[in-house]
From TrEMBL:
Catalyzes the oxidation of 5,10-methylenetetrahydrofolate to 5,10-methenyltetrahydrofolate and then the hydrolysis of 5,10-methenyltetrahydrofolate to 10-formyltetrahydrofolate. It comes from Streptomyces plumbiresistens. Belongs to the tetrahydrofolate dehydrogenase/cyclohydrolase family. Residues 140-277 form the Tetrahydrofolate dehydrogenase/cyclohydrolase NAD(P)-binding domain. It catalyses: (6R)-5,10-methylene-5,6,7,8-tetrahydrofolate + NADP(+) = (6R)-5,10-methenyltetrahydrofolate + NADPH; (6R)-5,10-methenyltetrahydrofolate + H2O = (6R)-10-formyltetrahydrofolate + H(+). This is Bifunctional protein FolD.
Length: 285
């Protein structure tokens, strides 16, 4: 029996429709639109495509976008200066640094230059701590989008064994923290993990997030498992989709699964940042 598709396009469309109405209401009450600043360093075609998609989605839901494109030769100090200015700008509610940045830049230093109150992509240490301790804060956008997708299909998480393949600071690690916060039992797998197949075979939920096409073989998937493919390289996912779809209960397509949810989460968190900043400003005056 073929798995049911976890349709990120459909779920994100519903999220964006609700967001659009909330943005209109925010504008009616506060007399302005939420603003998301996007920072892009260099000329990587894929990064330009991603930023363009995010800017277009901003326009669709009524969020104002401010795009800052920096030269490939921009160094860490200059990038942090630009991000610091955006952090201090009262007209900016959220900041997105498109990653990856060029190799000569200290990406972590650049992330930490973002005001945590404007970290709508959930990339700072403060945001990670909030995820780890299940406190209020901004989720990393892709893991947060995955959680929203699981919730939309009412997939139970408590007590289930989740295997997260990948340990990046903005995808794998926060993904595990969010699942743990929902009472799943979480195993992290990575490039040094022995017997990856055995770990996957025991998993009720598999989240593949390494960007290695076809890394997870379909026959590894436990019958009835939920498969989330967050990998995307060369227009392919990390999971052998055709075979896995014959064994899983639910599975995300690539594309059309996780990607749309990432953008919807990013924009939703931009509105939340604007709402929080407006509330805080009102209380302090």
């Amino acid at each position: 029996m073929a798995a049911q598709l976890l349709d990120g396009r459909a779920v994100s469309k519903a999220m964006l429709a609700e967001l659009r109405a909330d943005v209109v209401e925010f504008g009616r009450v506060h007399g302005r639109r939420p603003t998301l600043a996007t920072v892009l360093v260099g000329d990587d075609p894929a990064s330009h495509t991603y930023v363009r998609m995010k800017v277009n989605r901003c326009g669709q839901v009524g969020i104002q976008s401010r795009r800052i494109d920096l030269d490939e030769k921009t160094d860490t100090k200059e990038l942090c200066r630009v991000i610091g200015e955006l952090s201090a700008d009262p007209e900016v509610d959220g900041i997105l640094l498109q990653h990856p940045v060029p190799g000569h830049i200290d990406e972590r230093a650049a992330f930490e230059a973002i005001d945590p109150g404007k970290d709508v992509d959930g990339v700072t240490r403060t945001s990670f701590a909030a995820m780890a301790f299940t406190e209020d804060g901004f989720a990393s956008a892709t893991p947060g989008g995955i959680m929203a997708l699981l919730d939309a299909y009412e997939i139970p998480l408590a007590g289930r064994h989740a295997v997260v393949i990948g340990r990046s600071a903005i995808l794998g690690k926060p993904m595990g923290m969010l699942l743990l916060g929902r009472d799943a039992t979480v195993t992290y797998c990575h490039s040094r993990t022995a017997n990856l197949r055995e770990h996957v075979q025991r998993a009720d939920i598999v989240v593949a997030a390494v960007g290695v096409p076809g890394l997870v073989k379909g026959e590894w998937v436990k019958p009835g498992a939920v498969v989330i493919d967050a990998g995307y390289a060369d227009n392919q996912g990390d999971v052998d989709f055709d075979t896995a779809a014959q064994r899983a209960s639910y599975i995300t397509p690539v594309p059309g699964g996780v990607g749309p949810m990432t953008i919807a989460t990013l924009l939703t968190q931009t509105l939340h940042a604007a709402q929080h900043r407006t509330t805080t400003t009102t209380l302090t005056h």
